[in-house]
Description:
This protein has eight helices and three strands. By secondary structure, it is mainly alpha-helical. A three-stranded antiparallel sheet has the order 1-3-2.
Amino acid sequence: xxxxxxxxxxxxxxxxxxxxxxxxxxxxxxxxxxxxxxxxxxxxxxxxxxxxxxxxxxxxxxxxxxxxxxxxxxxxxxxxxxxxxxxxxxxxxxxxxxxxxxxxxxxxxxxxxxxxxxxxxxxxxxxxxxxxxxxxxxxxxxxxxxxxxxxxxxxxxxxxxxxxxxxxxxxxxxxxxxxxxxxxxxxxxxxxxxxxxxxxxxxxxxxxxxxxxxxx
Length: 216
């Protein structure tokens, strides 16, 4: 437990803080756009995207929670709110009386179909229009490599912290230096890292579109 922390170099600090700042601002603006243009929260959009991607538009409750990496209680409360608004339907699972199935409703499908064109335009204006095809390819390869590694080899500290419904450890491990340690000027700042973690949990899928809209 007395290992020396691997503090960030100036180059690493710049890259990390730039990445976290971009993610925070981008997801925040997309969330506001969804709410103002489509009256959908990011959480609504995440659930609707997952259901729309399934051929029958329905999914077991626990499978849906795993897919979006939410705790069971959060999924239960949010699905209940969406059902009250008519966006989804919660049904008993015919194969398992103890389980439940969440299905997208006609109103939910109409909502996601109306939101998708505006959302994809916002994604283009806020991000895609400002990067080159080569940069996009590099970003995709980096993202895929890192997330694949998480799945194969989770951090020991994350495993010890416990797993949620998804069976996956928390994302974005954070190098948090001792408060007031002026001898290490290139540490990742705790505020930035905390924001990144909160943003990742609350906006997972915010930039995703249903696969059925990918070729439009």
